[in-house]
């Protein structure tokens, strides 16, 4: 018998789809006695193993909504989102359940959620974790170690719903989060994920066109491996992901083309200006390199768990309190732009008393 989440004293999460991200989230949450985990997967192959891990699996996606979990998180493909939303919509208790997802595009999902009449209970989510592999077998609780989640809201989002999703992410998964709007998220996701997937695929395509590709592959080492890792992803999965954010990705690809055209012209240039052009090109991203150096040094310091590290965390932290009189959505977006992330929930997580501990990443200064 499946226990109704309403009568459970535990926080409850319903997960649609036990693939790489959904499976990893389910495995992570199932380790916690204070969280009840329910799941549905289109194919029931993972169910036996999932049940052995403490995950309660249901036969139909509608049954997941009927359980009235605190958070119902959609880990299915974007292509199947409209049909799944239509299936669960009549059974979602909007007064209790917050709908979320894990997709890498947010504006389109919000439109699909609105089409199903569930816009009032939606908070977008995107965990910055992944792999070139897919499916339940590739999932693991450790995949989300240290993950940052991007939440997306609009002007109509109720703060208690954000608190519910933050409880899952921060209190249970021990991850961090930032709060954005859909446009900011989708632009940023194109920059750090979708555009690089296309670039990596382009590099692999260039290799396959070369007559000496077998020799080149024998010579390949870390540079080629790191530049092309995501090109190993199922190409249809990459295609679907990129096409979901096509306009933002296309705009950024034109910026990359501009940089590469400059570099090609620079390398073809044998004039006296060549040296200056090369210095300009290779020095342009120095602020980013310095950020990565600071980030690495900060990580090494944190792993030592010294008193100095704890003092630095305290110095870089501040308490943010929810106030219904302010535009809290903009307040948290501005916080993210300053390099702050949410690391702890304080108070009772109600609209009147919620407080969030924000911690800035000192390594992001002067990027």
TrEMBL record:
The keyword Oxidoreductase applies. Residues 11-299 form the Prephenate/arogenate dehydrogenase domain. Keywords: Oxidoreductase. One of its GO terms (molecular function) is prephenate dehydrogenase (NADP+) activity. One of its GO terms (biological process) is tyrosine biosynthetic process. InterPro entries: 6-PGluconate_DH-like_C_sf, NAD(P)-bd_dom_sf, PDH_C, PDH_N, Preph/Arog_dehydrog, Prephen_DH. Signal peptide: none annotated. PANTHER family: PREPHENATE DEHYDROGENASE (PTHR21363), PREPHENATE DEHYDROGENASE [NADP(+)] (PTHR21363:SF0). Belongs to the prephenate/arogenate dehydrogenase family. This is Prephenate dehydrogenase. It comes from Gardnerella vaginalis. The lineage of its organism: Bacteria, Bacillati, Actinomycetota, Actinomycetes, Bifidobacteriales.
């Amino acid at each position: 018998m499946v226990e109704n989440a309403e009568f459970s004293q535990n926080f409850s999460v319903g997960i649609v789809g036990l693939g790489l991200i959904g499976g990893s989230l389910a495995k992570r949450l199932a380790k916690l006695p204070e969280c009840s985990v329910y799941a549905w997967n289109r194919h029931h192959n993972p169910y036996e193993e999932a049940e052995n891990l403490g995950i309660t699996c249901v036969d139909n996606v509608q049954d997941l909504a009927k359980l009235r979990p605190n958070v119902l998180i959609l880990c299915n493909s974007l292509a199947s989102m409209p049909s799944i939303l239509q299936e669960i919509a009549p059974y979602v208790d909007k007064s209790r359940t917050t709908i979320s997802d894990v997709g890498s595009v947010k504006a389109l999902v919000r439109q699909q959620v609105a089409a199903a009449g569930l816009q009032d209970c939606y908070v977008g989510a995107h965990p910055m974790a992944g792999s070139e592999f897919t499916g339940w077998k590739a999932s693991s609780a450790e995949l989300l170690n240290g993950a940052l989640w991007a939440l997306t809201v609009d002007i109509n989002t109720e703060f208690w719903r954000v608190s519910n999703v933050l409880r899952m992410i921060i209190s249970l998964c021990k991850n961090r989060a930032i709060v954005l709007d859909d446009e900011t998220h989708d632009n940023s996701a194109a920059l750090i994920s979708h555009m690089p997937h296309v670039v990596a695929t382009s590099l692999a395509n260039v290799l396959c066109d070369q007559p000496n590709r077998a020799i080149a592959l024998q010579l390949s080492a870390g540079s080629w491996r790191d530049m092309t890792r995501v090109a190993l992803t199922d190409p249809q999965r990459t295609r679907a992901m990129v096409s979901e954010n096509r306009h933002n990705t296309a705009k950024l690809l034109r910026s990359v083309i501009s940089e590469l055209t400059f570099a090609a012209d620079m390398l073809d240039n044998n004039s006296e200006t060549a040296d200056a052009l090369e210095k300009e090109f290779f020095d342009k991203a120095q602020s980013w390199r310095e950020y990565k150096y600071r980030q690495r040094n900060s990580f090494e310091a944190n792993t030592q768990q010294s008193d100095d590290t704890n003092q630095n965390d305290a110095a870089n932290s501040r308490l943010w309190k929810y106030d219904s009189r302010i535009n809290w959505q903009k307040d948290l977006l501005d916080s993210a732009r300053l390099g702050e992330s949410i690391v702890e929930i304080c108070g009772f997580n109600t609209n009147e008393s919620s407080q969030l501990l924000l911690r800035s990443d000192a390594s992001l200064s002067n990027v």
